[in-house]
Structures are given as structure tokens and as C-alpha cells.
Amino acid sequence: MLTGAGVSAESGLGTFRDAGGIWARFDPMKLATPQAFAADPDNVHEFYNARRRNLVGARPNAGHHALVRLGEGLAERGGGLFLCTQNIDDLHEQAGSRAVHHMHGELLRALCAGCGARTVWREDLGTGTICPGCGRAGAMRPDVVWFGEMPYGLDAIEAALEESDLFVAIGTSGAVYPAAGYAAQARAWGLRTCEINLEPSDNAHVFGERLYGPASEMVPAFVAQILAEAG
Ligand code: OAD
């Protein structure tokens, strides 16, 4: 299972590439690259601080809740769900999903570029923020993956894909790799593949099944269908 910004859209968190989306209003090269952070850390902190404040008030929607039921239902039947998200929000966890694989990091964590410590973080970050690990200021950054950086846990994702018989992408435009490549890989390996999105994604042709509509409606219906099929 791979989720993207579309699953959180109805919780009030913006998507990136829709009309009026985050990257339509802000230049990602000035905000989401290591070079941007080195050149203007205050600007980058301001952007992520605003997103963090927005997230602190956000709540999961019926799509997130349905995925909790899917994980529990599959576990009861002796199976499992590997929930990989590109989202840096914590809405899957708020809904009750466990062991969520955040391949693009987490907004509610800070990373010290000096000592490597990762800390749960719900407040604003700034250039003067002191790392609780090493006690030094000046190296704290959001623990998110920027363009040009390696997403987290790619080996674990590949291993999970290899063991799966169903790959589902929910609310992702299929524009950012390596995440966008998993559907084709899954198809090539003979997995059942399904896309759930508001509209056909860049990768729509790759999926064997395509369901279009809001995640809050489509995901609960899909989960009910999968659990019914699983018996
Ligand atoms: P995008 O904004 O690129 O795509 C979101 C997708 O969700 C679009 O295809 C929308 O049509 C769809 N969508 C919008 N509202 C929806 C709803 N209510 N129900 C279902 N689908 C809906 O977001 P991602 O694909 O997640 O990375 O973006 C991937 C990565 O690009 C992000 O993780 C982020 C971004 O740059 C980094 O910052 C490294």
C-alpha cells in the first residue's frame, strides 16, 4: 500500500500538484532541497513550521480509518499490510495504523545534521534551536526527505513488495520517483495492482484496476471489498 497527499486532502492538508497545490504556490527548489536549506535556512524553517502548525490541528479522515480496518482485518486472516506513505503528516498514526513506513520522513520529527539524533518535534524549528542530543544549535532541520536526498528504507519497501500479492496506490500523482516506479515493478512481478485517486495519475495505465473519486469514499468501499474477498 502506497499513499500520497491525496489521502490527507480531505483532512485539510494541501496536495502538491493539484491546481492551487503547495508546489503551485511555492517553488520546491527554494524550499525542499539541501541547497535551499544551506542558502536560506530561515525561509525553509518558516515553510515547514507553517506546515507543522497546520498539521497539529488536522485529524484523519475516513480513508485513513479504513486503512486501519484493512490492517486489522488482514492480520485476523493471517495476512498483513505494509503501509508505506510519501506523506510527512501523522494522520495514519492518529487513525491507529501501526508501523507506518514514512519514506519521505516525518514533519513531527527533527533531525540534527550535526550528530544525527532524531527527536519527536511538535514546535517550530529555527537556526537557534538546540539539539537535545548533542546540545548544539544551528544544525536542526525537519526530518523530511528533500529533493536530491535518498528516501528512507528503500530496501524494506522492495522486500515488502516482493512478498506482496496486491499493490495499491492511493492519492498520489505518480510524479516523484522512486515511489512512482513501484506500480510498474509490482505489475512486472505479477501482483494485482490498483490505483485509487481523484483522477487518473501519471501512471494510471500501469494499474490493472482504477477507482476514481475522493479517498474518504473510495478507500472504505475498497477495504470492504478486499476484506470480503479475503473471507
Ligand atoms: P501530489 O500532490 O503530487 O498528488 C496528489 C494526488 O492526489 C493527485 O493525483 C490528486 O488528483 C489526488 N487527490 C487529491 N485530492 C484527493 C482526494 N480527496 N482523494 C483522492 N485523491 C486525491 O502528491 P504526492 O503524489 O503525494 O515529496 O506527491 C509525492 C511527493 O511529491 C511528496 O511526498 C512530496 C512532493 O514533492 C517531497 O517533498 C520530497
Tell me about this structure.
The chain is α/β, with parallel strands linked by helices and about 230 residues long. It has ten helices and nine strands. Helix 6 runs parallel beside helix 10. It is globular and about 55 Å long. The model has no long low-confidence stretch (mean pLDDT about 95). The structure holds 2'-O-acetyl adenosine-5-diphosphoribose. The site of 2'-O-acetyl adenosine-5-diphosphoribose has 27 residues, from helix 1.
Give start-end ranges of low-pLDDT stretches.
none
Mean pLDDT across all amino acids: 97
Order of helices and strands: EHHHHHHEHEEEEHEHEEH
* Amount of helix: 25-40%
Q: Looking at the structure, what is the overall shape?
A: globular
Describe the biggest sheet?
6 strands, parallel
The oligomeric state is single chain
DSSP strand content: 15-25%
Radius of gyration, whole Å: 18 Å
> How many strand elements?
9
What small ligands are held by the chains?
Answer: 2'-O-acetyl adenosine-5-diphosphoribose
Structural class comes to alpha/beta
> How many angstroms separate the termini?
20 Å
